[in-house]
Design the sequence.
């Protein structure tokens, strides 16, 4: 380990300690803002885990998020909290494997279309079940979880998503995925089981998204399908990851922070036109920053390295 | 039973009509348009506005809305999408880029409609006269819309298969590189196909608005259905559009009548996945090289 590495590790550790102590000092408004920031950081990073290397655009974030929230609403009062989270993770993974196996063998386009409709499909199934079987459409979430608990759990999840992303990038799986992203035919000829690699990563990414939904559920106290399966979440996560640059692990987080603040500001100030403004922001990013902040940063630093020093 | 089949055929015809524009945009111009349904709803609103504000018959309104749809699409392609076409290194890259760009566009169009009309549902009453056909009662506006949809579909089919111009468009859909070699201007053909798709979606929006309630945020569902029909039928294939649209409509109305109306979307998806697992390129699509 070089001194810079050690310094980086110490800096990250110190930053985490400061963040963990935040609920003690921040007031309710800043705490809830911090929760939103962490939520979108985890969601965007988890999205980037799968969509970054493979370049398969997933529009299904809200489907997994909503399923996580619903599991808490159904099981939250019955089972212990860690058990609920475990079940949420398992169901999220199962759903991702089913969707992945049936669509990831096809072209990327079919995957996009299917994920585009997945949230709507799951929402319709939940409504059908609630109307026909349980005969209630909304549910109350009664669990003993405070805002502070939500914050700490999200912080733990954020650490986990970065750690796992870092580990994947250094594993055989990560290497295989980078080859798939470059050229899928080449990857097949190298003897990589393309479908297995993609489905595994999709499931890992989905577990994190489902867990975020589960952890965030106590914040609402009352949920119904239209709240839990809110399509704007899918959209916001994609735009955040794109702004930061999904091909780097730290990219989506870089995009998540400014955009969460922007969306928070817009929905408070201009509730009527916020959809329009968000769309314009999205287009600007697609046209001006196709590889995100991460891509821009790489280009700048490469240019600086290539340029000869002006004075010794 | 007869009623369910009738409803299914009507619904299927509507799906096929909606999907025809998208299959042109995606099959020829290679633009995966996620804002497609928003443009359809915009045309519905235009028709609503002409009918309630100016008392203009929606069938005459077609003559105004369709050319506007064509013009707006040309402008969009020239100024928003051509930079992406130039930038894209491969066809896959263009697909992802156009997908993201039109995803942003979807929110812009939706935002504009939300600020203009709010989130409420709209409808107007035009030709809602009961007609008895084969012992079943149907609304006249649905029948007229269905008849016009068939007419538009036929006209497009003949234009694409029987004219020199249409053949050029189909050549671009098959292979843009080879089309250049036989002196076809691929760029302007793509622009034209995209705009033709825009005209078709405008027509579909007007026809749909005659018998369906719509709101500023109901475009997504149209986009989804159109995408499913296009991919199921085989990209760029009009006959595939028709067959897939009818299959989707029939399965939906049969399930709604005999099983549960809450499960229509689930049936759509099951059909979609089932077809693609057997034939990944769609019913009438050719396998990719």
Sequence:
């Amino acid at each position: 380990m070089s001194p810079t590495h050690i310094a980086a590790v110490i800096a990250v550790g110190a930053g985490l300690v400061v963040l963990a102590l935040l609920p003690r000092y921040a007031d309710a408004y800043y705490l809830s803002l911090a929760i939103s920031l962490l939520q979108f950081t985890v969601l965007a990073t988890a999205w980037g885990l799968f969509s970054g290397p493979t370049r398969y655009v997933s529009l299904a974030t809200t489907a997994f998020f909503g399923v996580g929230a619903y599991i808490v609403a159904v099981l939250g009062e019955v089972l212990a909290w860690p058990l609920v989270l475990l079940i949420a993770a398992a169901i999220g993974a199962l759903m991702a494997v089913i969707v992945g196996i049936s669509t990831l063998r096809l072209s990327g386009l079919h995957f996009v279309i299917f994920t585009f409709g997945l949230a709507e499909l799951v929402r319709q199934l939940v409504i059908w079940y609630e109307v026909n079987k349980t005969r209630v459409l909304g549910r109350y979430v009664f669990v003993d979880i405070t805002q502070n608990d939500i914050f700490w759990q999200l912080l733990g999840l954020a650490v986990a998503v970065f750690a796992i992303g870092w580990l994947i990038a250094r594993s055989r799986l990560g290497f295989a995925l980078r080859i798939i992203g470059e050229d899928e035919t080449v990857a097949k000829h190298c003897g990589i089981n393309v479908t297995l690699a993609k489905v595994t990563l999709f499931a890992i990414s989905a577990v994190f998204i489902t867990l975020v939904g589960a952890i965030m559920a106590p914040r609402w106290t009352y949920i119904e399908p239209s709240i839990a399966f809110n399509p704007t979440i899918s959209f916001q996560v994609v735009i955040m990851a794109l702004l930061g640059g999904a091909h780097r692990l730290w990219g989506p987080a870089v995009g998540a922070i400014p955009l969460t603040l922007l969306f928070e500001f817009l929905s408070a100030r201009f509730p009527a036109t916020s959809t329009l403004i968000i769309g314009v922001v999205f287009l600007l990013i697609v046209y001006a920053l196709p590889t995100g902040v991460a891509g821009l940063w790489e280009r700048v630093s490469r240019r600086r390295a290539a340029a000869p020093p002006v004075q010794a | 039973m007869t009623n369910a089949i009738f409803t299914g055929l009507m619904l299927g015809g509507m799906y096929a009509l909606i999907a025809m524009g998208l299959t042109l945009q995606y099959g020829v111009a290679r633009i995966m348009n996620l804002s497609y349904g928003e443009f359809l709803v915009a045309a519905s609103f235009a028709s609503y506005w002409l009918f309630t504000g100016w008392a203009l018959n929606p069938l005459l309104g077609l003559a105004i809305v369709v050319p506007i749809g064509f013009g707006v699409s040309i402008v969009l392609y020239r100024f928003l999408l051509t930079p992406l076409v130039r930038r894209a290194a491969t066809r896959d890259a263009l697909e992802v880029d156009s997908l993201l760009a039109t995803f942003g566009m979807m929110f812009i169009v939706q935002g504009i409609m939300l600020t203009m009309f709010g989130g409420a549902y709209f409808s107007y009453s035009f030709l809602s006269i009961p007609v008895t056909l084969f012992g079943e009662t149907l609304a006249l506006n649905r029948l007229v819309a269905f008849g016009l949809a068939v007419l538009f579909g036929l006209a497009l089919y003949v234009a694409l298969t029987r004219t020199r111009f249409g053949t050029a468009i189909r050549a671009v859909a098959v292979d843009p590189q080879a089309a250049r070699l036989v002196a076809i201007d691929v760029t302007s053909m793509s622009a034209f196909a995209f705009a033709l798709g825009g005209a078709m979606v405008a027509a579909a929006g007007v026809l749909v608005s005659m018998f369906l309630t719509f709101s500023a945020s109901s475009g997504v569902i149209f986009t989804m259905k159109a995408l499913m029909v296009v991919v199921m039928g085989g990209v760029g294939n009009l006959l595939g559009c028709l067959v897939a649209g009818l299959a989707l409509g029939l399965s939906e109305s049969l399930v709604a009548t005999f099983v549960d109306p809450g499960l229509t979307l689930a049936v759509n998806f099951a059909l979609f996945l089932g077809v693609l697992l057997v034939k990944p390129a769609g019913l009438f699509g050719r396998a990719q090289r």
In short: The radius of gyration of chain A is 20 Å. The longest strand of chain A covers residues 139-140. The mean pLDDT of chain A is 82.
